[in-house]
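Whiteboard transcription, Tuesday session. T.W. wrote the structure tokens on the left side:
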């Protein structure tokens, strides 16, 4: 191995506040030796918690934390340009920001609710990845962890869901927003292969995060679905983060346009 870490470059994570998947991804990069990490979230308070926890545990990591809304069409560009100014480049871009919709069938769903979910989940993911891809196109590739493999100009990992592949009751906007992320991932994988950029997504199953656990009515509606999966349990954010880091690393140098399901076998049943 030439580099001491699989992550000599710069990591950018959206939806990184608190104790969910994005925060676990940020921690996992620090654990794996990534020394430049930029995080963002619409929730300034939880973003600061993630930043402080990493800063205390990994004082050698250079951290940038910038609050912002991924649905704002100006935010992603300004955030990525600040990251590029401070850290020089963007190598591993992980788009985790997302919301669940209010549980309703399509006939009861308002246009405003449909747009809210899609503006954050799908459009927000596209806006973020578009800004990240533009930056990646400007930078020289970094050499791989072994010289038999091509250098990598960048890797994007979008967080979709098992609900982008199968569906569940009362979640039409959410399920469609996650299917759209899978489609976007495949399309971008085709378009940016020639530039040495890989684009993949991870489709988590039922994961123990604030999104699922915080509100009693959501917890009661969603957690029983974990028993559908052969592994009969919820996943941990760190179990999703490890899949994300693999896809970002040059260990995944031939993995392109993939939707990696991390769901305890849920969709196999
Ligand atoms: N937890 C699960 O069971 C599960 C399953 C499949 C997919 N996912 C997806 O994983 C991703 C992370 O979710 P999580 O479970 O860690 O939940 P979470 O609520 O802990 O994390 C989501 C983060 O996104 C942030 N966010 C919401 N709207 C935003 C916006 N407009 N701009 C910027 N940030 C915003 C939230 O503040 C939060 O910190 C989401 O995209 C979610 O859809 C979660």
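and on the right, the sequence the group agreed on:
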């Amino acid at each position: 191995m030439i580099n001491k870490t699989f992550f000599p470059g710069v990591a950018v994570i959206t939806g990184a506040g608190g104790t969910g998947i994005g925060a676990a991804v940020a921690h996992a990069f620090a654990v794996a030796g990534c020394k430049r990490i930029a995080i963002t979230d619409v929730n300034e308070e939880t973003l600061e918690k993630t930043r402080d926890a990493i800063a205390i545990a990994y004082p050698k990591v250079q951290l940038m934390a910038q609050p912002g809304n991924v649905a704002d069409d100006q935010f992603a560009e300004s955030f990525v340009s600040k990251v590029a100014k401070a850290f020089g480049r963007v190598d591993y871009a992980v788009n985790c920001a997302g919301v669940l919709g209010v549980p309703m069938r399509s006939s009861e769903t308002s246009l405003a609710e449909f747009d809210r979910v899609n503006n954050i989940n799908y459009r927000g993911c596209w806006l973020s990845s578009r800004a990240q891809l533009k930056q990646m196109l400007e930078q020289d590739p970094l050499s791989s962890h072994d010289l038999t493999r091509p250098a990598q100009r960048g890797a994007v990992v979008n967080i979709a869901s098992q609900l982008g592949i199968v569906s569940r009751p009362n979640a039409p906007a959410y399920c469609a927003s996650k299917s759209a992320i899978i489609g976007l991932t495949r399309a971008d994988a085709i378009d940016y292969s020639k530039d040495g950029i890989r684009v993949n997504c991870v489709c988590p199953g039922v994961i123990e995060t604030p999104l699922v656990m915080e509100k009693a009515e959501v917890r009661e509606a969603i957690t029983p679905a974990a028993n559908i999966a052969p592994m009969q349990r919820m996943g941990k954010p760190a179990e999703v983060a490890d899949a994300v880091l693999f896809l970002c690393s040059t260990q995944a140098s031939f993995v392109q346009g993939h939707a990696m399901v991390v769901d305890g076998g849920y969709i196999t049943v």
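Someone added at the bottom: The two ends are 40 Å apart (CA to CA).
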